[in-house]
Amino acid sequence: MSSFSRLVRFLARDGRTYYGDAILSPEVTDIAKAKQAHVIKGDIFGKHEVTGQVADVRLLLAPLAVEDVKTVRCLGLNYTQHAKEVKMPRPTYPVLFYKPVTALGGPSDIVPVPAPAQEAAGLDYECELVAIIGKEGRDLSESIALDHVMGYAVGNDISHREWQLKRGGGQWSLGKGFDGWAPWGPGIVSAKLIKDPQSLRISTKLNGRTVQDSSTADMIFHVAKTISFLSQGTTLLPGDMIFTGTPQGVGSGRSPPLWLQDGDVVEVALEGIGSCTNKVEYIKSKPRL
């Protein structure tokens, strides 16, 4: 499906934005440490070429441009221990919600917290494996579902529990869909390099302290099952993203709760892929003209 190994989108030192294949030394797996990349030309979901042109990475951006993303699907309560910590029943079917593409952010972008989300406590972190669809499919069986995955990344499903659970009218998206509330990256590791997405360590650090540390093996609905389920009667398209849920350790599952504050730095990491490090920043409201 793809000829790249570790897809990145980056601002180069020449001032241009490229897609590229990250260049890493053999002992490094965190794409966030990439300093150079082979420039990719062509359609990343179709015919493309990893060229011999090497460009210096000035800044890693969200791995896909907004115009290349189709939908952002997300699962809730998809880790056994997480469901237990928030005292909610293990779901019979995947709990699905959506984020707008404007919620997506880069691996080092700030997490902007607008005025409405500053009205009450409840700002939370969620490290997640993100699967990116690379080939169109519908009514897929579990046995072939992973054949439709272009690759994997790590993301942070930033959530405000007050808006998610109390002010959202029974829907979760309002408390999870503010601008920049889904930073992800630092690149997309090809599915050909990650044969088993259910054996990866996943973690979160808050201001340098580990607050989540688990394995994707604890997923209730593993990636293949999730993709198969979501494709029943519904066509999945290249550029569809699936945030696959978070493990235990979220702020809302603690006593007392551990809420994100202005200036906090959150780092989410996934084995074999890398890390995203984002600073929380309260945004001052601007007067309307």
Structure description:
It is a single chain. The protein is mainly beta and 289 residues long. Helices cover 8% and strands 38% of the residues. It has 4 helices and 18 strands. The chain has helices at residues 80-85, 142-145, 161-166, 223-230; strands spanning 6-12, 17-23, 36-42, 48-61, 72-76, 95-99, 104-105, 111-113, 123-124, 127-133, 149-156, 159-160, 182-190, 201-206, 209-215, 241-243, 265-270, 274-282. Strands 1, 2, 3, 4, 5, 6, 7, 10, 11, 13 and 16 form an 11-stranded mixed sheet that branches. A hairpin with a 5-residue loop joins β3 (36-42) and β4. It is globular.
List the helices and strands and how they pair.
Elements: E1 6-12, E2 17-23, E3 36-42, E4 48-61, E5 72-76, H1 80-85, E6 95-99, E7 104-105, E8 111-113, E9 123-124, E10 127-133, H2 142-145, E11 149-156, E12 159-160, H3 161-166, E13 182-190, E14 201-206, E15 209-215, H4 223-230, E16 241-243, E17 265-270, E18 274-282
Parallel strand pairs: 5-16, 7-13, 8-18
Antiparallel strand pairs: 1-2, 1-4, 1-13, 2-3, 3-4, 5-6, 9-12, 10-11, 10-16, 11-13, 14-15, 14-17, 17-18
Quick structural gist:
Helix content is 8%, strand content 38%.
Question: If you average the pLDDT, what whole number results?
Answer: 95
As residue ranges, the low-confidence spans are: none
Structural class: mainly beta
Classify the oligomer: single chain
Rg on CA atoms, Å: 18 Å
Name the overall outline: globular
- Major β-sheet, in short? 11 strands, mixed
Percentage of residues in DSSP E strands: 35-45%
Helix content: under 10%
- Termini separation (Å)? 49 Å
What is the strand tally? 18
Query: What order do the helices and strands follow?
Result: EEEEEHEEEEEHEEHEEEHEEE
Q: Counting H and I runs of at least 4 residues, what is the number of helices?
A: 4
